Amino acid sequence: MPSHLPTLWLHRGRERSLKRHHPWVFSGAVARVDGAPGPGDTVDLRSADGELLARAAFSPHSQIRARVWTFVDEPVDEGLIARRLAAAVAARGGPAAGAPDAAACRLVYAESDGLPGVIVDRYADTLVVQLLTAGAEHWRATIAGLLPGVTGVQRVWERSDVEVRSLEGLEPRVGPLAGDPPPPRLEIREGRVRLWVDVHHGHKTGAYLDQRHNRARIGELANGRRVLDAFCYAGGFTVHALAGGAASVLAIDGSAEALAMARANLELNGLAAERCELAEGNVFEVLRGLRDRGSSFDLIVLDPPKFAATASQRQGAARGYKDINLLAFKLLAPGGVLATFSCSGAVSGELFQSIVAGAALDAGVEAQVVERLGQAADHPVLLSFPEAEYLKGMVCRVGRG
Ligand code: SAH
User: Is residue 210 lining ligand 1, measured as CB closer than 6 Å?
Assistant: First the structure.
């Protein structure tokens, strides 16, 4: 069907990934641009033979030159954005008012929900939005206008202060999209515990929602155990472990603000401070110090930040993962459990497992994988877009020696 949209013509053969519904077109695949699309404008994507493959958002400054809104011949308009938002919210159980466990969740996960570059997280009565791409930016006012109606949540705050926006030629943006600004701290429920979230300054949109179920799982594994929570941030794993009956927790993070929030989270849950020590320091150094002093733990959580953002950083990342996992294995008592995570998309599950295997070998322990953990179900992965999967976790039990 003819359309009046600007058109990206692809090189011959470069239509293949689009035919498999992968939503990205890289700059090298584009042979010619007809018309003069601006950043975020909707363009037609056509094969060398002229076949209409998809409609997409144009990103002139990014190597990912276009991101698909739709693979069918339909208008990309407010109606499409509204349908996508509504479908994403419905998939998380509908407007979540009254469902306490859903008081914090990811409502929209970008490509996985057919809305490239759009993240919407809900924290109690507040939505926090990240617009990461030119296409998402283009629809800012539409998205802001639709969200209260679709979700039943009136307050919408933007936290588009992320590095990736610079690849799209976009400035950081923080501020209200609807309603009044959120208070300095919001209280959310997460399983059996309550947590503070600072949506103004917290990491990501305020918290690591992707680890929600894994934190609860650690709570189940912690009973009676001496726990080490490395890279604890606001103490999510720590609070769950203590609520689950941990004998003690040592929580480590490099950020004083994160530890202040962790302390507030302990207080919020009325958890005895004497069972928990919060230590500020570099995890690599603190773990070495603990090893040198002969310390030992029964359950260790390693949840480091992203060590590799791109494939070129993979080797350095592998060294980092190897170091901390090796130290953790050395610190585990016989029969102890290591819950180890990687959120580096550039490190595959297979590579991560082989790094952890190498760490166990060098530490001189035999360990079994007893459970695999991943990102929460509200961070789904389209089969046609495996890049959306980034969080890998393994629960490993070491032998009794
Ligand atoms: N486990 C947390 C999320 C951890 S995010 C949760 O479930 O909420 C990673 C954390 O590691 C951040 O808080 C960051 O401050 C901290 N960090 C990064 N590098 C570090 C290092 N070398 N030593 C100590 N902390 C570090």
Answer: no
Residue 125: closest CA among 93, 159, 157, 94:
157
List the catalytic residues: 343
pLDDT on residue 103: 82
In whole angstroms, what is the distance from residue 209 CA to residue 28 CA? 35
Given a contact cutoff of 8 angstroms between Cβ atoms, the answer to whether 340 and 398 are in contact is: no
Q: Does domain 208-398 have CATH number 1.10.540.10?
A: no
CA of 134 from ligand 1 middle (Å) equals 30
Report CA-CA distances (Å) from 339 to 277, 294, 299, 346, 375: 19, 20, 8, 20, 14
**Hey, do 78-178 and 208-398 end up sharing a CATH topology, with the first three levels equal?**
no
Q: What does 222-270 look like in DSSP terms, one character per residue?
A: -TT-EEEEES-TTTHHHHHHHHTT-SEEEEEES-HHHHHHHHHHHHHTT
- The per-residue pLDDT for 388 is 97
Is the shortest distance between the CB of 236 and ligand 1 below 6 Å?
Answer: yes
Q: What CATH number labels 7-70? A: 2.30.130.10
The residue written with tokens 């689009």 in the block is 18
Instruction: Convert the pLDDT of each residue in 230-272 to its tens digit.
Output: 999 999 999 999 999 999 999 999 999 999 999 999 999 999 7
Pocket perturbation via mutation, ligand 1, pick of 253, 266, 285, 323 by most ligand atoms within 8 A of CB: 253
What pLDDT is stored for residue 98 in this prediction?
Answer: 47
